[in-house]
Write a structure and sequence with these properties.
Radius of gyration: 22 Å
Oligomer: single chain
Number of strands: 0
Strand content: under 5%
Structural class: mainly alpha
Distance between the termini: 13 Å
Shape: globular
Number of helices: 10
Helix content: 55-70%
Protein backbone atom coordinates (compact mmCIF):
# COMPACT_ATOMS: atom_id res chain seq x y z
CA UNK A 1 0.00 0.00 0.00
CA UNK A 2 1.26 3.48 -0.88
CA UNK A 3 1.08 6.20 1.71
CA UNK A 4 -1.14 9.23 1.13
CA UNK A 5 1.75 11.33 -0.14
CA UNK A 6 2.76 8.64 -2.60
CA UNK A 7 -0.79 8.41 -3.92
CA UNK A 8 -0.89 12.17 -4.52
CA UNK A 9 2.18 11.89 -6.72
CA UNK A 10 0.58 9.36 -9.06
CA UNK A 11 -0.35 10.59 -12.50
CA UNK A 12 -3.98 10.31 -13.59
CA UNK A 13 -3.13 7.52 -16.03
CA UNK A 14 -1.25 5.54 -13.39
CA UNK A 15 -4.10 5.94 -10.92
CA UNK A 16 -6.53 4.69 -13.54
CA UNK A 17 -4.31 1.71 -14.32
CA UNK A 18 -3.86 0.87 -10.63
CA UNK A 19 -7.61 1.04 -10.08
CA UNK A 20 -8.18 -1.37 -12.95
CA UNK A 21 -5.72 -3.86 -11.49
CA UNK A 22 -7.39 -3.70 -8.09
CA UNK A 23 -10.85 -4.02 -9.58
CA UNK A 24 -10.32 -7.16 -11.66
CA UNK A 25 -12.43 -9.03 -9.13
CA UNK A 26 -9.71 -11.67 -8.77
CA UNK A 27 -7.24 -12.17 -5.93
CA UNK A 28 -3.90 -12.14 -7.78
CA UNK A 29 -1.98 -15.39 -7.36
CA UNK A 30 -4.54 -17.03 -5.04
CA UNK A 31 -4.20 -20.30 -6.98
CA UNK A 32 -0.48 -20.61 -6.18
CA UNK A 33 -0.99 -21.24 -2.46
CA UNK A 34 -4.28 -23.12 -2.17
CA UNK A 35 -5.00 -26.81 -1.60
CA UNK A 36 -6.44 -27.29 -5.12
CA UNK A 37 -9.73 -28.49 -3.69
CA UNK A 38 -11.80 -26.15 -5.85
CA UNK A 39 -15.11 -27.85 -5.05
CA UNK A 40 -14.74 -26.86 -1.39
CA UNK A 41 -13.29 -23.39 -1.93
CA UNK A 42 -15.46 -20.38 -1.01
CA UNK A 43 -13.29 -18.13 -3.20
CA UNK A 44 -13.91 -19.79 -6.56
CA UNK A 45 -15.23 -16.63 -8.22
CA UNK A 46 -12.18 -14.68 -7.07
CA UNK A 47 -9.72 -17.18 -8.54
CA UNK A 48 -8.64 -16.59 -12.12
CA UNK A 49 -7.34 -20.14 -12.45
CA UNK A 50 -10.71 -21.62 -11.45
CA UNK A 51 -12.70 -19.30 -13.72
CA UNK A 52 -10.34 -19.93 -16.64
CA UNK A 53 -10.63 -23.69 -16.14
CA UNK A 54 -14.42 -23.51 -15.85
CA UNK A 55 -14.83 -21.46 -19.00
CA UNK A 56 -12.30 -23.52 -20.95
CA UNK A 57 -14.13 -26.69 -19.98
CA UNK A 58 -17.43 -25.19 -21.14
CA UNK A 59 -15.92 -23.98 -24.40
CA UNK A 60 -13.72 -26.98 -25.28
CA UNK A 61 -15.83 -29.73 -23.64
CA UNK A 62 -12.54 -30.99 -22.18
CA UNK A 63 -12.00 -31.87 -18.52
CA UNK A 64 -8.66 -30.25 -17.75
CA UNK A 65 -8.13 -32.60 -14.80
CA UNK A 66 -8.11 -35.70 -16.98
CA UNK A 67 -4.90 -37.29 -18.17
CA UNK A 68 -3.77 -36.69 -21.73
CA UNK A 69 -4.69 -39.32 -24.34
CA UNK A 70 -2.00 -41.94 -25.00
CA UNK A 71 -1.71 -41.37 -28.72
CA UNK A 72 0.15 -38.26 -29.85
CA UNK A 73 -2.42 -37.18 -32.42
CA UNK A 74 -5.28 -37.05 -29.91
CA UNK A 75 -3.10 -35.32 -27.31
CA UNK A 76 -2.00 -32.64 -29.78
CA UNK A 77 -5.58 -32.10 -30.93
CA UNK A 78 -6.69 -31.64 -27.34
CA UNK A 79 -3.87 -29.18 -26.61
CA UNK A 80 -4.61 -27.20 -29.75
CA UNK A 81 -8.27 -26.99 -28.77
CA UNK A 82 -7.30 -25.62 -25.34
CA UNK A 83 -4.68 -23.18 -26.63
CA UNK A 84 -6.95 -21.83 -29.36
CA UNK A 85 -9.66 -21.16 -26.80
CA UNK A 86 -7.50 -19.57 -24.10
CA UNK A 87 -7.35 -16.07 -25.57
CA UNK A 88 -11.10 -16.05 -26.21
CA UNK A 89 -11.71 -17.05 -22.60
CA UNK A 90 -9.39 -14.31 -21.31
CA UNK A 91 -11.15 -11.77 -23.48
CA UNK A 92 -14.52 -12.97 -22.18
CA UNK A 93 -13.33 -12.63 -18.57
CA UNK A 94 -12.02 -9.13 -19.25
CA UNK A 95 -15.25 -8.02 -20.91
CA UNK A 96 -17.29 -9.32 -17.98
CA UNK A 97 -15.24 -7.11 -15.68
CA UNK A 98 -15.20 -4.08 -17.96
CA UNK A 99 -11.47 -4.00 -18.64
CA UNK A 100 -8.81 -5.02 -21.12
CA UNK A 101 -6.94 -8.31 -21.20
CA UNK A 102 -3.69 -6.46 -20.43
CA UNK A 103 -5.12 -5.38 -17.07
CA UNK A 104 -5.68 -9.00 -16.05
CA UNK A 105 -2.20 -9.98 -17.25
CA UNK A 106 -0.68 -7.12 -15.25
CA UNK A 107 -2.64 -7.85 -12.09
CA UNK A 108 -1.91 -11.58 -12.12
CA UNK A 109 1.79 -11.15 -12.99
CA UNK A 110 1.35 -13.81 -15.66
CA UNK A 111 4.97 -13.42 -16.76
CA UNK A 112 6.01 -15.15 -13.52
CA UNK A 113 4.26 -18.34 -14.49
CA UNK A 114 0.50 -18.01 -14.37
CA UNK A 115 -0.35 -21.68 -14.12
CA UNK A 116 2.24 -22.42 -11.44
CA UNK A 117 4.73 -25.27 -11.28
CA UNK A 118 5.13 -28.13 -8.85
CA UNK A 119 8.50 -29.33 -10.12
CA UNK A 120 7.38 -32.95 -10.24
CA UNK A 121 9.93 -33.70 -12.97
CA UNK A 122 12.92 -32.14 -11.29
CA UNK A 123 15.43 -34.18 -13.28
CA UNK A 124 14.61 -32.03 -16.29
CA UNK A 125 15.29 -28.81 -14.35
CA UNK A 126 18.36 -29.09 -12.13
CA UNK A 127 20.07 -32.38 -11.29
CA UNK A 128 22.08 -30.92 -8.40
CA UNK A 129 18.92 -29.53 -6.77
CA UNK A 130 17.28 -32.94 -7.15
CA UNK A 131 20.21 -34.65 -5.45
CA UNK A 132 20.11 -32.21 -2.53
CA UNK A 133 16.35 -32.48 -2.15
CA UNK A 134 16.34 -36.27 -1.99
CA UNK A 135 18.87 -36.15 0.88
CA UNK A 136 16.76 -33.88 3.09
CA UNK A 137 15.25 -35.39 6.24
CA UNK A 138 11.84 -33.87 5.53
CA UNK A 139 11.73 -35.59 2.14
CA UNK A 140 12.62 -38.90 3.77
CA UNK A 141 9.95 -38.31 6.40
CA UNK A 142 7.39 -37.46 3.71
CA UNK A 143 8.31 -40.64 1.84
CA UNK A 144 7.76 -42.72 4.99
CA UNK A 145 4.41 -41.05 5.64
CA UNK A 146 3.21 -41.52 2.06
CA UNK A 147 4.11 -45.23 2.08
CA UNK A 148 2.50 -45.91 5.46
CA UNK A 149 -0.61 -43.83 4.71
CA UNK A 150 -1.27 -45.61 1.42
CA UNK A 151 -0.84 -48.99 3.11
CA UNK A 152 -3.16 -48.05 5.98
CA UNK A 153 -5.86 -46.71 3.64
CA UNK A 154 -5.68 -49.89 1.58
CA UNK A 155 -6.08 -52.00 4.74
CA UNK A 156 -9.08 -49.96 5.89
CA UNK A 157 -10.90 -50.27 2.56
CA UNK A 158 -10.04 -53.97 2.37
CA UNK A 159 -11.56 -54.44 5.83
CA UNK A 160 -14.69 -52.58 4.75
CA UNK A 161 -15.03 -54.93 1.77
CA UNK A 162 -14.30 -58.14 3.68
CA UNK A 163 -16.67 -57.22 6.50
CA UNK A 164 -19.24 -56.08 3.92
CA UNK A 165 -19.57 -52.67 5.59
CA UNK A 166 -21.40 -50.31 3.28
CA UNK A 167 -21.06 -46.53 3.18
CA UNK A 168 -23.11 -44.96 5.94
CA UNK A 169 -23.01 -48.07 8.14
CA UNK A 170 -21.17 -48.01 11.46
CA UNK A 171 -18.20 -47.73 11.57
CA UNK A 172 -18.15 -46.52 7.94
CA UNK A 173 -19.99 -43.32 8.77
CA UNK A 174 -19.99 -40.08 6.83
CA UNK A 175 -17.46 -38.71 9.31
CA UNK A 176 -15.12 -41.58 8.54
CA UNK A 177 -15.69 -41.20 4.81
CA UNK A 178 -14.88 -37.49 4.95
CA UNK A 179 -11.71 -38.16 6.96
CA UNK A 180 -10.53 -40.77 4.46
CA UNK A 181 -11.26 -38.37 1.63
CA UNK A 182 -9.16 -35.65 3.29
CA UNK A 183 -6.26 -37.99 4.01
CA UNK A 184 -6.20 -39.12 0.40
CA UNK A 185 -6.55 -35.61 -1.04
CA UNK A 186 -3.70 -34.10 0.96
CA UNK A 187 -1.35 -37.06 0.54
CA UNK A 188 -0.10 -36.00 -2.89
CA UNK A 189 -0.40 -32.29 -2.07
CA UNK A 190 2.04 -32.59 0.85
CA UNK A 191 4.43 -34.48 -1.39
CA UNK A 192 4.36 -31.98 -4.27
CA UNK A 193 4.39 -28.80 -2.16
CA UNK A 194 7.39 -29.96 -0.12
CA UNK A 195 9.33 -30.57 -3.30
CA UNK A 196 8.26 -27.28 -4.83
CA UNK A 197 9.36 -25.43 -1.69
CA UNK A 198 12.72 -27.22 -1.54
CA UNK A 199 13.39 -26.75 -5.22
CA UNK A 200 12.71 -23.01 -4.95
CA UNK A 201 14.94 -22.81 -1.89
CA UNK A 202 17.91 -24.51 -3.55
CA UNK A 203 17.59 -22.47 -6.72
CA UNK A 204 16.99 -19.03 -5.19
CA UNK A 205 18.07 -18.92 -1.52
CA UNK A 206 21.56 -17.67 -2.36
CA UNK A 207 20.37 -15.14 -4.94
CA UNK A 208 20.40 -11.43 -4.15
CA UNK A 209 17.01 -9.64 -4.25
CA UNK A 210 15.08 -12.89 -4.78
CA UNK A 211 12.23 -11.69 -2.57
CA UNK A 212 9.41 -12.98 -4.80
CA UNK A 213 11.06 -16.38 -5.09
CA UNK A 214 11.56 -16.55 -1.30
CA UNK A 215 7.88 -15.75 -0.84
CA UNK A 216 7.02 -18.52 -3.27
CA UNK A 217 8.93 -21.29 -1.53
CA UNK A 218 7.76 -20.14 1.90
CA UNK A 219 4.20 -20.05 0.56
CA UNK A 220 4.51 -23.58 -0.76
CA UNK A 221 5.95 -24.74 2.57
CA UNK A 222 3.00 -23.15 4.40
CA UNK A 223 0.52 -25.04 2.21
CA UNK A 224 2.39 -28.25 3.05
CA UNK A 225 2.21 -27.42 6.77
CA UNK A 226 -1.53 -26.77 6.60
CA UNK A 227 -2.04 -30.03 4.71
CA UNK A 228 -0.05 -31.89 7.38
CA UNK A 229 -2.23 -30.41 10.14
CA UNK A 230 -5.48 -31.21 8.34
CA UNK A 231 -4.24 -34.76 7.73
CA UNK A 232 -3.37 -35.15 11.41
CA UNK A 233 -6.89 -34.16 12.41
CA UNK A 234 -8.38 -36.55 9.85
CA UNK A 235 -6.28 -39.45 11.14
CA UNK A 236 -7.34 -38.63 14.70
CA UNK A 237 -10.97 -38.99 13.64
CA UNK A 238 -10.18 -42.33 12.02
CA UNK A 239 -8.29 -43.55 15.09
CA UNK A 240 -11.30 -42.76 17.26
CA UNK A 241 -13.81 -44.42 14.94
CA UNK A 242 -11.76 -47.38 13.70
CA UNK A 243 -10.34 -49.06 16.80
CA UNK A 244 -9.02 -51.98 14.69
CA UNK A 245 -6.42 -49.65 13.23
CA UNK A 246 -5.53 -47.64 16.34
CA UNK A 247 -1.88 -48.72 16.47
CA UNK A 248 -1.04 -48.09 12.82
CA UNK A 249 -2.92 -44.77 12.78
CA UNK A 250 -1.14 -43.61 15.95
CA UNK A 251 2.15 -44.33 14.18
CA UNK A 252 1.03 -42.24 11.22
CA UNK A 253 0.11 -39.31 13.47
CA UNK A 254 3.59 -39.40 15.04
CA UNK A 255 5.21 -39.40 11.59
CA UNK A 256 3.07 -36.41 10.57
CA UNK A 257 4.05 -34.55 13.75
CA UNK A 258 7.70 -35.11 12.88
CA UNK A 259 7.11 -34.02 9.29
CA UNK A 260 5.55 -30.77 10.50
CA UNK A 261 8.56 -30.14 12.74
CA UNK A 262 10.94 -30.80 9.83
CA UNK A 263 9.10 -28.31 7.59
CA UNK A 264 9.08 -25.69 10.36
CA UNK A 265 12.80 -26.20 10.93
CA UNK A 266 13.75 -25.91 7.26
CA UNK A 267 11.35 -23.04 6.48
CA UNK A 268 11.11 -20.95 9.69
CA UNK A 269 9.35 -18.11 7.86
CA UNK A 270 6.68 -20.28 6.26
CA UNK A 271 4.03 -19.86 8.96
CA UNK A 272 4.27 -16.07 8.63
CA UNK A 273 3.58 -16.10 4.90
CA UNK A 274 0.26 -14.47 4.04
CA UNK A 275 -1.52 -16.47 1.38
CA UNK A 276 -3.39 -14.15 -1.01
CA UNK A 277 -7.11 -14.25 -0.32
CA UNK A 278 -6.84 -16.70 2.57
CA UNK A 279 -4.64 -15.07 5.20
CA UNK A 280 -5.08 -11.36 4.50
Amino acid sequence: MKNSQGCLNLSASNMKKEKKIIDTGFVPGIYNYCDRWCERCPLQLRCMSFMMGKKLKERTKVNLGEEMPDDDESALARLKNIFDSTFDVLRELAEERGMGIEDIYSSEKVDRGFWGEDYEDLEDEDEEAVRQIEQEDLVKCDRIYKTLAEKCQESIYQWFDEAKIKEGDAPRTKEVGDALLEVNWYLDLIHSKIRRALYGYYIYSDKINATQEEDDYNGSAKVALLAVEISQNAWMVLRTCLSNFETSISHLIVVLEQLGLEIDHFFPKARYFKRPGFDC
